[in-house]
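Late entry, evening session. Most of the bench is empty. Finally got around to the prediction I had been postponing all week. Sequence below, unchanged from the version circulated by S.P.
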Amino acid sequence: MNKALFYKFTLLILVFCVVGEVALRIIHDNNKPFVPSVTKDLIPTLPHNSDFYSEFNGHKSTRYVTGLLGQRVASTELREVNCELCIFVLGDNQALGWGIDYQNTLGAILANSLLGDGGKSRILASPRLDPELARFLVQSYRKKFHDEQLISIFILNLANDLDEMFIGRQAMFDINVNWLSMNSFLYMYLIMGQDTIFNRVSSIPMGATPIFSALNADEHENFIYNAVSSITKTVHSMPQAKNNIIVITPSSEQLLYSIYKKLNINLNSKADYLKGRNNNSDILTANRQSIGNIKRSAEIMEKVEKLIEQQLRPKGFQVIRLSKHLHEREDLVKYINASNSHLTERGNALIANIIQQLLRSHNP
């Protein structure tokens, strides 16, 4: 390739990138197509000391203000402020409040109700943050902030926490792309398109299902022991608090299985299953799992959930299994998004209400 042709090709690529970047920003009105995260020492966090808007997967445009270590805060003035006797929430997307305004997140609802100030909450959360990595992140947080909390809450997301921790963690690329993750819309679209480009879409459900399927019955107990051990270490590493609470949120298959049963969809007949799914496409928009995977995964995750709870309670933790409360509700899709298993505003409010009832029962 001669130099002239090389320069023309390079210029064409640059023009394409600039035009694509500008077009995507206009299309999205400067709302990022997903919540970006940056990685340092293999630990994902939200971008530090940032203030941005994101609009993803049908969620409304949402503002995210982050502090010194990527913790979500109510306003820019609170980025480096200690929060004594506040509400501390740790976890991944479920803890973060995916597509939810700050004042409607679990932490802010509790802070407003119990402390009269929704700003007295700190949310240390990020996409791809599993329980083990969360422990290292919260240890860094405690070196900067030495405050004692009223309530420390850890959210275990059964949709993907266990597979990320035990099967493997996906890095965006092997190079440092933190700046691109935060500033380039074109790069974000490339990230979103990786599964399609590299044909990485799989029918294997997330969560513990692949692990449990590969283990025999005698090995299940050891798997749960290791999971509980990691969760216990993480909760013990959280800021000292008057109340330590673990909230377990269900996998997408558990949710879908409950929806199918409430809609009286026959999972033993593929024809009835497909008909029911089509008739309720407004609810089941992103379901790509096969009929067998949904039922099987839901049953396995229900077993995992119960075993984890049984082993955590004797350690002195207060444990909330959200699935038990959702199963009682006919309109459960108003509390958790069926397409991606993220908590909705009402889901956050439901957990806040359960926690307050729990506190009243322990402190009448």
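Two things to note before I forget:
Strands lie at 38-40, 43-45, 51-54, 62-65, 87-91, 121-125, 149-157, 241-249, 318-321.
The longest strand covers residues 149-157.
Will write this up properly tomorrow.
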